[in-house]
Amino acid sequence: MDEDAVKHLWTLWRLNKALIGGLKDALIALEKIDKLSPERRQDVIDSLRKLISQNEKLSPNPPTKNRSSASDSSGARR
Q1: Using 50, 70 and 90 to split pLDDT, how confident is the model at 16?
Q2: Nearest 10 degrees: Cα torsion 59, 18, 44, 23
């Protein structure tokens, strides 16, 4: 695997980890909604919005297939 591919995979892994962290925070907030102060609730909302915004900036468009190295449905290289 070339260096660019490894960097891309690490970026995706870190992004996924951050998004899962945001989902966990949202779940905790929903479970304890009646115990959260309005300020803490707003902090959680702002954090989730920031994660969403960062993701949208990194992935504004879906990836396109590179015909020369695309895999068919069996996983075999063309």
Answers
A1: confident
A2: 90
Q: Which of 3, 10, 16, 26 is nearest to 54 (CA)?
A: 16
- Give residue for tokens 């907030």: 29
Structure tokens at 70: 């695309």
Contact 22, 48 (CB under 8 A): yes
Task: At 31, list the tokens.
Answer: 């479970």
Q: Record the pTM.
A: 0.50
The residue assigned the tokens 């902090």 is: 43
The identity of residue 50, as a single letter, is: K
Give the contacts of 55 (CB within 8 A, at least 6 positions apart): 15, 19
Residue type, 47: S
